[in-house]
Amino acid sequence: MTKRQEAALVTRQKIIDAVKELSGEKSYGEMSIDEITKKAGVAKGTFYVYFKRLEDVCADIAYDKSLKNADKIFKKRIPAKEKVELFIKESTKTVKNSTLGITQQWFKAVAAPLSGEENGMRKLEFDLSTVKKLLDEEIAEGDLEPATDTEGLSKKIVSEFYGRVMLWCMSDGKIKL
Are 166 and 112 in contact (CB under 8 A)? Predict the structure, then answer.
């Protein structure tokens, strides 16, 4: 990686860290790009080099947390079925531990992406592929029939989870996740 690429990653991370920090202090609706860039120590235009809108940052935060959760789960020596359950439990915990505003904006990036926007869909595709991989492990372990449609089943599992997250978001956290 070149020094310029490393510097770009550092700058991008500063923006993400600023959003995380601000989300502990105020709601998403109270945040402004000016405030985020000031906290990150970058120019306002720099924000738009890396993100189209604040929802993109929130989708990145959710995606990063999912990567870390999945990495820990795949390293565990437990049956694949338990790994699927643990992935959903850890994903739920991540949602609960994130601010409601960040979760709502992540979900908006998934449900209503802007033209050319990939952050929200990248998270959805990651969740689908992770659950499918875990289900495929269950077939390999003999816990699922070889003819099981793991792609279809992973879509059902992730759809159930995303539906619960959406209801939680729509109720401003009043409906139990």
Answer: no
**Which residue in this structure is represented by tokens 């929130």?**
58
Helix pair 100-111, 54-75: axis angle to 10 deg: 100
pLDDT per residue as tens digits for the range 103-154? 777 777 777 777 776 766 778 888 999 999 999 988 998 888 999 999 999 9
Instruction: Please identify which residue in the block is written with the tokens 């033209």.
Output: 115
Do the Cβ atoms of 75 and 156 come closer than 8 Å? no
Provide the residue type at 3 as one letter.
K
From 28, 108, 94, select the one nearest 63 (Cα to Cα). 94
Dist CA 16 CA 56 (whole Å): 10
Q: Which of 169, 21, 153, 161 is nearest to 88 (CA)?
A: 161
The answer to whether the CB of 49 falls within 8 A of the CB of 4 is: no
